[in-house]
Design goal:
The chain is built from twelve helices and 18 strands. It has about 375 residues and is an alpha/beta fold. The protein folds into two domains: about 230 residues, Medium-chain alcohol dehydrogenases, catalytic domain (Quinone Oxidoreductase, Chain A, domain 1); about 130 residues, NAD(P)-binding Rossmann-like Domain (Rossmann fold, 3-Layer(aba) Sandwich). The strands form four sheets. Strands 1, 4, 5, 6, 9, 10, 17 and 18 form an eight-stranded mixed sheet that branches. Helix 10 links the parallel strand 15 and strand 16. Helix 6 crosses helix 7 and helix 6 crosses helix 11. The longest helix has 20 residues.
Amino acid sequence: MSSHSADVGGAVEERRYAAVASGGAVTGPLMENAAAVGHSGDMASDNSMTAWQVERPGPMRTSPLVRVRIERPVPAPDEILVRVRACGVCRTDLHVTEGDLPPHRPRVVPGHEVVGEVVALGHEAGTEFSLGDRVGIAWLRTTCGVCKFCARGAENLCPDSRYTGWDEDGGYAEYATVPAAFAHRLPDGYTDSELAPMLCAGIIGYRSLVRAQLPPGGRLGIYGFGGSAHITAQVALAQGAEVHVMTRGEKARLLALGLGATSAQGATDRPPVPLDSAILFAPVGDLVLPALEALDRGGTLAIAGIHLSDIPPLDYKRHLFQEREVRSVSSNTRVDAKDFLAFIDGNRIEVTTPEYALADADRALTDLAEGSVSGAAVLLT
């Protein structure tokens, strides 16, 4: 973690404690009367909450995630406090918990697909949100707003960007905070459980589809078929694409066909037709080669994950010649999120969401690690 990130993290903590001391910095009945909090049956009136923390990153079999009682967060002046209703279980949470991503915050609370209710607002949080609003908290938490990337609309590339559930505590808890400028209004017509995976799996899949440069009516290959892929496939189908899925799990292949994919085969199998574009969702570098071989001339492969195992050596003629391209995908912008949420407001997306209680967050991540989750798992508080 950069020294800037450490400094900002300390500043946030200082602002939160200052808000408590000032008395008038935070509005909302929750802050005014802690005894009125009664939540999830076991919510104490002592300003504490249940949460899961990454105690020591490592494989899930080593129990890196621990359930704790910690102090309920207090929003900084520009933040809102959200009572968590649902939090998606994302593969990035697994990368944070198992140590594939380097720790940015000791004992961090994972989770960045949060749907909840606004229960308090910092005095500089603006007027976009009110008490009782349903809001979403996503992966991108803050950016500097002044660097050349932010200035040109590429805030996902900001060197000083910070992330929910990695740099700051996330949604594997009963409450979470978020800067009001990075919270998201959510469309009606979906349950909390359905919306939670949309806030990362959906948004990053949407950006990956843009990065893959799929032509109108084109043939899209999807490698790996978990939470993000099964949402992205539906977006592509709604846009008129022909979708082919390559994934290891039989249940995932059946899900793909049920959602409208033209074909579904093994992860390394060749699709029945050449592909105009492909997206690699599985964090497996070995799949880059068969994905490139499956592309037609001029095709593009977008790699959607934040983490990828090593890529084997490429053969130029087999994998890249004829103007095939490989593109990475780095987080998302707030514009991506707004565009995607507007899309699902007008186009119904069916989300397969195996549900777990918050108390079973460790089991949910273990199931994800073992490949036994079909769709996008969600924690309910």
